[in-house]
Structures are given as C-alpha cells and as structure tokens.
Amino acid sequence: MNKSYALALTLLFGIGAAQAAKPCEELKSEIAAKLDAKGVKVYTLEIVANDKVGEAKVVGSCDGGSNKITYERK
Q: Which residue range forms the structural domain that includes residue 48?
C-alpha cells in the first residue's frame, strides 16, 4: 500500500470517528436546521439509547456511537 493511500484512509476513518463522537444535542440541532431548511414542518427528533431505537428511523449517531437520533414525521 502506498503512503498517500494509507494517509487517505487514516484521514477518512479519523473524520468518521470525530463525527460519531459529536455531542447529541449539537448533532440534533444540526439535523433540525437541515430539516427546517428543506421545509419540513411537523416532526420530532429524539435522542435514544442504541437498544431503545425500535422501529424508528435513525438519522444520526452521537456520543461516540452510544446513542442514536431518531426521526418521526407527524
């Protein structure tokens, strides 16, 4: 494996880990802003533990992957 390929993989995985470690409230706010910008009006976003997700649509992972953010359109 050449050095530039290895560096690219390291950066890619490092960025993914940094995003997964994002605090839940911060990520929830970012997702809400994107939904609002798209004109979605009536919805709920909830922060739930991984084992409590159930059938809900997962739209984000936060706190190092220990929690998920779920979305429900009303």
A: 3-73
